[in-house]
Amino acid sequence: MSESVDATTRPGVPALGYGAANVGNLFRALTDDEAWAVLDAAWESGIRLYDTAPHYGLGLSERRLGAFLQTKPRDEYVLSTKAGRLLRPNPGHVAGGLDTDNDFFVPDDLQRVWDFSDAGIRASLDESRERLGIERIDILYLHDPERHDLDLALTEAFPALEALRAEGEVGRIGIGSMTAAALTAAVRSADLDTIMVAGRYTLLEQPAAADVIPACAERGTDIVAASVFNSGLLAQSEPRRDGRYEYGALPEELWQRLTRIADICRAHGVPLPAAAIQYPLQSPVVTSVVVGGSRPEQLRQNAQLAALDIPADLWRELAAEALIPS
To answer: Which residue pairs, CB below 8 angstroms and at least 24 apart, start in 95-100?
Structure first.
């Protein structure tokens, strides 16, 4: 394993990012002022990579993030959003209806419509630009293609993204997914610059290590690691047995693994969340880690944990016990 990496100062790359689903009212509603305070805390903590999507709060995340970033110098941050789901009027909307089936506390007056066609991908980009109020999108990901039609993504959506990049409409293109098989297929089939690996390369479990990481190394594709706290299991130094895992109960095998990792971190004097943030960056193909947060203090704490010095012996002991790949 490599030496510890300071995730706030990795040379040439904004290694710590903010995933803006929470300012789209994920799990709980925020006022505009509360959302602004979260984003302000991220910025003041040195975070310069911001990720959003139309899916997050039916466009609310893009609107709030865009309003905030419009107050900042454009060359000082990296902005990514996603394509694949268009937002269209919801004919089933009734007054007071909320998008809580998708965990967003926003009116459900819009609905998500899958569209992987060239026209759909271009419309998604144009509409994201309008909501953000920002023309330049640094990274455009195809969002969760396996939830719709991965084959269609490979034959239509990725060629559309490649065309947008060739035309200079976006800087980099990629895929954002929680499925290792979809990530691997995309990297091997399309010419992608960056992929977002959500929850598949974390301190607790690394299914992406088998195929995704080698594929990216072979193709020269960078990785942004997201959901590194495993649904919150790694977000505090003392794990809870009743913690949520993938929106369900935590399996006993993973609980045993989690408690052993926590014990080793404790023995080395390292907070478990710090190790969770910094672990993915031990791989040379992982350039950035994206964390969420709905309160300013969470962003400040995450930035501090990302900068914490972690002894290389911690990674060596975890690898020796086969808790992370050697």
So the answer is: 99/57, 99/58
Nearest Cα residue to 175 out of 204, 216, 228: 216
CA atoms 253, 19, 91, 88: torsion sign: negative
Tokens representing 13 are 């790359």
Measured distance CA(18)–CA(95) in Å, rounded = 32
In 212-237, which positions are buried (b, 16+ CB within 10 angstroms) versus exposed (e)? bbebbeeeebbbbbbbbbbbebbbee
Tens-place pLDDT, residues 254-283: 999 999 999 999 999 999 999 999 999 999
Q: Which pLDDT tens digit goes with each residue over 177-229?
A: 999 999 999 999 999 999 999 999 999 999 999 999 999 999 999 999 999 99
Distance, CA of 56 to CA of 254 (rounded, Å): 29
- CA–CA distance from 179 to each of 94, 184, 186, 195, 217 (Å)? 34, 9, 11, 12, 18
Task: Match 């992406």 to its residue by tokens.
Answer: 208
Confirm if 164 and 196 have CB atoms less than 8 A apart. Answer: no
**Side chain identity at residue 164, one-letter code:** L
Give the Å distances, CA to CA, from 99 to 120, 198, 315: 23, 22, 41
Which active-site residues does the annotation give?
56
Residue 302: enclosing H or E segment and its boundaries? Answer: helix 296-307
* Separation of alpha carbons 305 and 281, rounded Å: 13
Q: What is the dihedral of CA 272, 274, 277, 281, to 10 degrees?
A: -110
d(CA 184, CA 201): 13
